[in-house]
């Protein structure tokens, strides 16, 4: 719907202005979240952070198209989507600071824990969607994954089951061109990842993943289809991972800077900002207010992550089984004994 320079594609019907402004605020916050989380890694406050810089439109759109009762199933790279869904940024980053849990109330937010293993969350998403259908509930599920996940067996099982049982789930593949260091052409011989939908008997749609209005339109339709009983949809968002896989990765070993520079001109935040300013929906004062709001979020995040959380070693055993096994009780007692004699 929007060209990289912010001009509207002829014939495109953009979402309402208030929705575009909401989306732009989400992009500003997502970009600042990525920047601040990266800084926290360098300061030693976070153990790792997989940045979604360049993919923020996918993150924000995924949260915006869901109703209150719907579910979001994120990957390790989807912290911005979790925050856009309403989770406190400090809670969203709890797992990435090395804590034993995901940090937020999964049921309250209808956001599953971030999944590090590739594609496992897709099976969980389909299970929740299938259960909703069996119970006659109107809820839809949106499951995020990357292009690397499409090479996993769990991806096949999830899509096949969802299609056969018409589960109300949308699969959003953020095709950012690399599974860590493996480029897309080394993973799939298909013309596009959206083409894979044909083999499962579900609609497949390819969309510009750096175009927020286009993402909102495509995902709105997919969620509506799922909610109405029409079954799942596979959406491939064509985007790019601007930064390294994580802070532990050296992206310069497997891609050229010229490639990264070419994608910088398709920045989703700049693209939408240009359109909003051209339509006189955004001015300097409004831009400053959004930036200040994002800075407050970043400041609260720094304060929250810096706070030391009390640690109870026995939590290692308290949340494994509802009724601890003899082996767990033995290990717990051994730890207690060691702690008692430690000077």
Automatic annotation (TrEMBL):
<feature type="domain" description="Dehydrogenase E1 component">
    <location>
        <begin position="31"/>
        <end position="296"/>
    </location>
</feature>
<dbReference type="InterPro" id="IPR001017">
    <property type="entry name" value="DH_E1"/>
</dbReference>
<keyword id="KW-0786">Thiamine pyrophosphate</keyword>
<feature type="compositionally biased region" description="Basic and acidic residues">
    <location>
        <begin position="329"/>
        <end position="343"/>
    </location>
</feature>
<dbReference type="Pfam" id="PF00676">
    <property type="entry name" value="E1_dh"/>
</dbReference>
<comment type="similarity">
    <text>Belongs to the BCKDHA family.</text>
</comment>
<protein>
    <recommendedName>
        <fullName>2-oxoisovalerate dehydrogenase subunit alpha</fullName>
        <ecNumber>1.2.4.4</ecNumber>
    </recommendedName>
</protein>
<comment type="function">
    <text>The branched-chain alpha-keto dehydrogenase complex catalyzes the overall conversion of alpha-keto acids to acyl-CoA and CO(2). It contains multiple copies of three enzymatic components: branched-chain alpha-keto acid decarboxylase (E1), lipoamide acyltransferase (E2) and lipoamide dehydrogenase (E3).</text>
</comment>
<dbReference type="InterPro" id="IPR029061">
    <property type="entry name" value="THDP-binding"/>
</dbReference>
<feature type="region of interest" description="Disordered">
    <location>
        <begin position="324"/>
        <end position="343"/>
    </location>
</feature>
<keyword id="KW-0560">Oxidoreductase</keyword>
<dbReference type="InterPro" id="IPR050771">
    <property type="entry name" value="Alpha-ketoacid_DH_E1_comp"/>
</dbReference>
